[in-house]
Write a structure and sequence with these properties.
The radius of gyration is 34 Å and the shape is elongated. Helices cover about 70% and strands about 5% of the residues. The longest helix is centred in the first third of the chain and has 40 residues, at about 55-95. It is mostly helical and about 260 residues long. A two-stranded antiparallel ribbon has the order 1-2. The protein has one domain. It has eight helices and two strands; from the N terminus they run H-H-H-H-H-H-H-H-E-E.
Length: about 260
């Protein structure tokens, strides 16, 4: 005996629609979480470096860590090298002082001992204005709040770069000339030792300029690269070329070295 067909449940369709809606909501929620996770390590960018906003904090911190470590190392090497040169000059002149009986020569040596000693102290001490903030920032590199670590490092970079630019700027060269001119005037006007004054002043200016020109100052380029968002390390190494040159009836070779 045929039974009448059962009517289709009206609850099935709504349940199916609810299930589809729940599935779509879950997919959208998962996508949102994935997007949030991808940007979880992004920290705010400084106002003067908007390009780094698209980079993760880990990449930015790695770039700054390499730059800080390199600068600390190079400034330390420069400071101890030149400080040792001035210290050796101080010791040599101080050792010669009791062996010299000429009054004029003793005057030259005394002024030389004082000036080189001051130079040694300054070369050991003044670079700390650059390296101490960099070291302080690196000591807190593993703090939990990564964005706070990054913000501190960015402030340190700007501050130390400004101090470094001042130390390598025109005032440093003018100060070198002024100090050595003062030493020369002490010998010349104070003791009538004009020959020694000219020699001391000339050598002092030359050594001081060599000192200033060899002082590391990489942070200017580091800051420019950071602000542009170009954090990839440039190709390094030594490149050279040799090509013949013929000009004005003369011939030779031109060697070019770049690093």
């Amino acid at each position: 005996m045929l039974r009448p067909s059962q009517p289709r449940s009206r609850r099935g369709a709504p349940r199916s629609r609810h299930a589809r809606r729940a599935l779509v909501a879950a997919v959208l929620l998962g996508s949102g979480l994935a997007t949030t996770g991808a940007r979880a390590d992004a920290c705010p960018a400084p106002a003067d470096a908007p390009a780094v906003a698209q980079l993760g904090s880990a990449e930015r911190l790695e770039f700054l860590a390499r730059a800080f470590d390199r600068e600390i190392h190079d400034v330390d090497v420069w400071s101890w090298t030149w400080g040792s040169v001035y210290t050796a000059g101080t010791i040599a002149q101080a050792a010669a002082l009791p062996l010299t009986h000429d009054r004029g020569a003793r005057t030259d040596l005394t002024v030389g001992v004082i000036s080189t000693a001051v130079g040694a102290v300054s070369l050991y001490g003044l670079p700390l204005q650059l390296t101490l903030p960099l070291r302080a920032s690196r000591r807190r590199w593993d703090d939990t709040d990564r964005c706070a670590v990054l913000a501190r490092a960015e402030r340190t970079l700007v501050s130390v770069e400004s101090d470094q630019a001042l130390a390598n700027g025109l005032l440093a060269h003018l100060g070198n000339v002024a100090v050595n001119a003062g030493i020369a005037l002490i010998l010349g006007l104070g003791y009538g030792r004009w020959t020694s004054a000219a020699l001391s002043g000339g050598v002092g200016v030359a050594v001081g300029e060599a000192n200033a020109f060899t002082q590391p100052h990489h942070l200017r380029g580091v800051l420019a690269r950071y602000r542009s968002g170009q954090l990839a390390e440039p190709a390094g190494g030594l490149a050279w070329s040799l090509r013949p040159v013929v000009a004005g009836g003369m011939s030779g070779a031109l060697l070019t070295v770049a690093w």
